[in-house]
Every structure is written in C-alpha cells, then in structure tokens.
Predict the structure.
Amino acid sequence: MDFGQSAESETSSRFLILFHDLRVISRQPSAPRFSPSAAPHQLIRHVVCCRGHTLYKMELSESVQRGLQSLADPCAFDRTGFQVLVDASYRSLLSSRGDPGVLDQPELKQIDKILLKQCHTAATTFILEAVKQNADKSTISSCLEEVTFSAERIEIFCTTHQKHKKDLESLLGSIGRRLPQVNDVSWRLQYHMKNAQVDKVNVPFYSISLNTENEGASEDINFSCTMEQLQDLVGKLKDAAKSVEKASQM
C-alpha cells in the first residue's frame, strides 16, 4: 500500500470513530440539531457552536435590559406589583389565545401604561430566552443580578419560573419543526477517473450519507468531499466532541 492509500484509509477510520461522537452530540438535549438542507461545513458549524457557547451566557438586548431594570426598581414596582407582573408574564405566554387584559390588574393600575408594557415585554422575552437556553437557577440569578434585581426579587422570579418551566418547554417544543438527529453514517471511496477533456485524473473522493430521524421519519443527508475536505471534517468533529465533553463537566 502506498502513502496515498494509507492516508485515505487512516482518514476513513478516523471519520468512522469520530462519527460516534457526532451522534452523541446530536442526541444532547440542548445541542443543536442538523438540518437536511445544510451543507457539510454548516452541519459541523452547528455542532461546534453548541451548548457550551451560549448556555451559560444569555445575551439580552438593551431594550430588554432597560425593561428588566425598571421591573427591578422598587419605586416603579412594589413587591406586590412585581409579583403580579411576573405572574402575568408567564400567564400571557401560556395562554393559548393570548389574554388582552392580562395587565389589567388592580395592583398595576397606578403604573404608567407605557412602562408597564415595556417591562412586560422585557420579562416575557427573558423568560423565553431562559427556557430556550435551558438556563438553570444560577444562570438566571446571575443575569438578574446584572440588571439590579434584589435577592428577594430574584427568588420570586426563579420560584415562578420553576413552577411554569415544564409547561413552557412543552409549548416551545410544539412550535415549529424539530431538526433531525443523526442515527448512522455510511461512506464510499470513489475515484474520478477522467475530466471533461477525457484526461486521466484518478482523483479519489468520498460519498458520505448521514442517516437522520425526525419524529419517526427517516431521511438521508448526502454529500461528497475530497480527502482533504474529509480530513477537515474529521478535525472539526474532534473539536466538537471536545467542546461537548468540556461543557458536560461544567
């Protein structure tokens, strides 16, 4: 066996070994799923940018931060008003038709209507982001501390969030389309014998097929790549596997 054949064999073996890590990654509850329409490099980018990158840092827009800061201000919302607005925010998200009078509460009558709506929007946005990121109590607490929530208000918010978290997860899970998970892989080494000018080229390339499953339906993602591209793919899979392993140890 010459050096070229040895390199091809080694690349193929490493790909099969590391594919196991890709399949494990794709089954992580908070890992990104793979889209059948994505290009090979996009598939790997989805893996590399997975859980460890965003789970522990919720990025909030300036308007959301301002709304939460207002909600944290005891001069704008007393303890009762704060609790009522937090409850109303969760109730509005879980209402199947949306309740237009969700903010028409006696405890909120004295609050400026524009400020009230801004705080409500900020609270619901934060709640959805927390559920989306599967943020735990410490993550939520840290984010709320940054927008000047007191320890008492953080505890009220976290307690309410924990109470409704499962229902919100079910709601978000029912919206839109779940991306498929990778179940298996098959590959075939082929040779491009001639080019358009009928010249011999003898260039090897790989045909890769990822078998995926989405809500019981099976679908294959097929693509071709050169040996160099497959080596790059293997390297990115290795980086992705290390990223998930590191995140799981946090």
About this structure: Confidence is low (pLDDT under 50) at residues 28-56. Residues 159 and 173 are 22 Å apart (CA to CA). Strands lie at 181-194, 200-214, 217-226. The two ends are 45 Å apart (CA to CA).
